[in-house]
What we know:
The chain has helices at residues 3-15, 20-32, 75-88, 93-97, 103-106; strands at 55-62, 65-72.
Amino acid sequence: MTINEIQDEIIEEFSQFDDWMDRYALLIDLGNSLKALKNEDKTPQNIIEGCQSRVWLTAKYENGIIEFRGESDAVLVKGIVALLIRLLSGQTPDSIINADLYYIDAI
């Protein structure tokens, strides 16, 4: 799937909920579905600076695509990380760099 197709899918999923609490619950569920990072991946070089909560992100480049993994110690942030991983993993570097991430405003 393309990044835009995945964004449209995410927008559709979130549009089913009018209430912000339901959207938060969806984010929490998405975060809980993330596979936990190995302790050896929770290193200072994998931490995202500037977040109030701790967020770790790893990337693996293979066969022209990037696979991301991540985790956070905050449940809502972990859900946001899950969305980004869903959106960007399996994509080429060029498609990621050139992506217009419009889903953020839409949801």
